Amino acid sequence: MTLRVPRRTIAAFLGPAVAALALVGIAPLLYAVWKSLHYFNLTKLAQQRFVGLDNYASVLTDPVFWQAMGRTALLFAISVPVQIALGLTIALVLHRPGLTFWKTLTRLSLVLPMATTYAVVGLLAQVMLNEKYGVINQMLGWIGVDAINFIGDPTNAFIAVILWDIWQWTPFVALVLLAGLSTVPPEIEEAAKLETRSDWTVLRHVQLPFLVPSLVAILILRTADTLKLFDMPFTMTRGGPGSATEFIAVLIERVGNRQFDIGLAAAQSIIMLALTIFLARLYIKVFYKEVR
Amino acid sequence: MAAPLQRRALWGEAAILVLIGLFCVFPFYWMVTTSLKTQIIALESPPVWLFTPTLANYWEVLFEDKVAPTLINSIIVAVCTTGLAVALGTPAAYALARFEFRGKQDLWFWFITNRFVSPVVLAFPVFLIARETGLRDTHAALILMYLTFTLPIVIWICTDQFRSIPRELDEAALLEGASQWTIFRRICLPLAMPGVAVSSILSFIFSWNELLFAYILAPKAAKTAPAMAVTFMEGYDVPYGKIMATSTLIVVPVLIFAMLASKHLVRGLTMGAVK
User: Fold this and answer.
1) pLDDT at A291
2) Beta-bridge partners for A3
């Protein structure tokens, strides 16, 4: 039974939260749309004028924007499959019975990377990946690999961002998949294990269907977070060397904060937001259809 | 024959667990040990693992490099935005859990999808607004902007919590003539404290970690600790020990909170993508 409550009461409970979120979430967004229709540069305020969709046209035809998008897509395309593969392995190990105490401890350590301040993760990368003083290069030396200039070389810097993204988010993926594995009814899993000795068969035909919602969630969240990714590459490389690690959010920050072209930055961020929403809807449509 | 085989499998599994643990924890070990090195030791090549630790870096960053005030700013901002989010979010969560009204699903969806809006979209318009209104470089600007992610977290966690409270309690109180507000304040909110605590911890962690808004909106007086850490990287002589000391000071409180709420952290991070 649901209580019938006067509208006034409902408004009193919800009003403050709605007003606050409209103020900080919607109002700036509308202001961004408005500014994106202007030429608006903080260093040339006198030249401010309405330009219609010009900013959008220049963003959509700007190779720098598309290169940043491409880089962001490449980061996603490499690191997310690795995160899912490693995360699934970790989740399957943790899902097995036995060694309870050690598994609790491992699960606790998995929480640490994703809680770590993203800016600090980038700083850590600077320290650990340094060509001369970095511990990673020391370890590579132990197995006979020559020191790698991670931060200074464009390709290596990109690889370093991928590695660090994998470090920070594999544990998250593992824990989400672990939660997914626990939704498999134990009777079904037990029965399947009596039928076949192959863990792979159990995974493919029994556990995987139950993991689909988790996988969709991971895809949606990792897409949104990769498009948002700013702190870690910013503190690690400032988008460099050159523009090797200038992902989309880092590019927008540079255009707005370091070139002061806020009209253009607004147009870029609106396009990025539209893309985020489009992709989230696409995933839900494609993957949830398959389940049904 | 089966027993030794099983034992060997168990050892293999234990080894994998240790490897996973090391993978997660090693960067923190390196951060803390580097923070205890002098600049000379930190710049040994190859890096040294055993050395005489010193707390000099902590002393220097806290009192000479003015990290202490930025940590205080971070605490002020994170605590205030969390308090505000709980004050605004719990009544809203209660309404979403208990009342039926038109557009409820849409409202819920709107609250939650704030998770997907990149701060970089909002940062520049807010920067302009803050410049006009004199809110630039104040705690208030950050406290308000952090509501974009703390308020949805509180609503998301607490709505579930309120739903789990049996309705019989409210109905009994209603028969005795209690108003909805009294029921919320006196009966449901106390019972929902676990959810309030979890969502407070999560919103504290997310506010504490935030960089982009802080970097753009609060360059000096209200500068937060992560924004401060960034400025160390500017210049030629990179002070590794100091950077890692600052990093440790920033990260330790969040890690403690994350351990306390470890079961719920994933739930907080998956907001909007799972039911």
Assistant:
1) 47
2) B99
- Answer whether residue B21 is part of any domain: no
**Containing domain of residue B73, as a range?**
67-269
**Of A19 and B44, the one with more pLDDT:** A19
pLDDT for the residue numbered A15: 93
Of the listed ranges A33-37, A281-285, B179-183, B194-198, the one predicted with least confidence: A281-285
Say whether B230 and A20 touch across the interface (CB within 8 A).
Answer: no
pLDDT, residue B1, reads: 45
| Interface residue B167 vs chain A (CB under 8 A) | yes
Q: What's the CATH architecture for A48-112+169-291? A: Orthogonal Bundle (1.10)
B23 CB near a chain A CB, below 8 Å? yes
- Tell me what pLDDT residue A2 has: 52
**A187–chain B nearest CA distance, Å:** 23
Segments in chain B below pLDDT 50: 1
Q: Chain B partners of A21 at a C-beta cutoff of 8 Å?
A: 110-111, 114, 147-148, 151-152
> What are the extents of the domains in chain A?
48-112+169-291
Copy the structure tokens of residue A33: 């749309």
Q: What is the pLDDT of residue A133?
A: 85
Is the residue at B116 inside a domain? yes
Check CB contact of A16 with chain B, cutoff 8 Å: yes
SS (H, E, C) B91-151: HHHHHHHHECCCCHHHHHHHHHHHHHCCHHHHHHHHHHHHHHHCCCCCHHHHHHHHHHHHH
Q: How far is B122 from chain A (nearest CA, A)?
A: 6
In a domain, B22, yes or no: no
**CATH label of the domain that carries residue B73:** 1.10.3720.10
In a domain, B72, yes or no: yes
CB contact under 8 A, B24 and A252: no
Number of domains in chain B: 1
What 3-state DSSP class applies to B233?
Answer: coil
Distance CA B202, CA B196 (A): 10
- Residue A16's pLDDT band, with cuts at 50, 70 and 90, is very high
Q: Band of the pLDDT at A240, cuts 50, 70, 90?
A: confident
What is the CB neighbour count within 10 angstroms for residue A188?
13
User: Is B3 near chain A, with CB under 8 Å?
Assistant: no
CB–CB contact B251 A116 (8 Å): yes
